[in-house]
Design brief:
about 170 residues; globular; binds shikimate-3-phosphate; about 55% helix; alpha/beta
Length: about 170
């Protein structure tokens, strides 16, 4: 049985997976990998362009391929896209080689973090807060059921969130 040498961060868009992941990787001397970057380099276009030209289904296919390739590496911190949990196979594979943390945030925190950005096609709509509530509602159980641990980030800074993850890992002796 493979050992869990990787740390995977799951959670909604804008919860802070990338920032937390990058800082965490630096602190524990792991390599940081963002599956969204991997998807863009595979598809040779931006995520917005993938959605626009090929639609969400095609995006999800590339997302699974990108994840599979990333999971073959060791000692990495992976920031995943918010929709990765929609495919159970993604989670099953991730869990074999990774300890999975759900970066949990309320829709208000998320909205505050994403309101000035334009690179998330699913939130490019007239009422992004409503869309966040709707998607979060749909995915909440998936996030909770897919993770090993939950780190809530509503009232804490990046450094504290990174420390929480490190403490949990150390407690587990991984
Ligand atoms: C998505 C999240 C995005 C990106 C794509 C779809 C989603 O990643 O993969 O826009 O379905 O939640 P982040 O969570 O890194 O923003």
């Amino acid at each position: 049985m493979a050992t869990k040498t990787n740390i995977a961060l799951i959670g909604f868009m804008g919860a802070g997976k990338t920032t937390i992941g990058r800082n965490l990787a630096k602190k524990i001397n792991f390599t940081f990998v963002d599956t969204d970057d991997e998807i863009e380099s595979r598809a040779k276009m931006s995520i917005s362009e993938i959605f626009e030209l090929h639609g969400e289904e095609y995006f999800r296919k590339i997302e699974s391929e990108a994840l599979n390739s990333v999971l073959s590496r060791e000692n990495i911190v992976i920031a995943t896209g918010g929709g990765v949990v929609k495919n159970k196979k993604n989670i099953d594979k991730m869990k074999i080689v990774s300890t999975v943390f759900y970066i949990e945030a309320t829709s208000e925190t998320i909205y505050n973090n994403v309101k000035n950005s334009t690179h998330r096609p699913l939130l490019n709509c007239p009422n992004p807060l409503e869309k966040i509530n709707e998607l979060l509602n749909d995915r909440l159980e998936l996030y909770k059921n897919s993770c090993d641990f939950i780190v809530n980030v509503d009232k804490t800074e990046v450094d504290q969130n990174v420390e929480s993850i490190i403490n949990i890992i150390n407690m587990r002796g991984e």
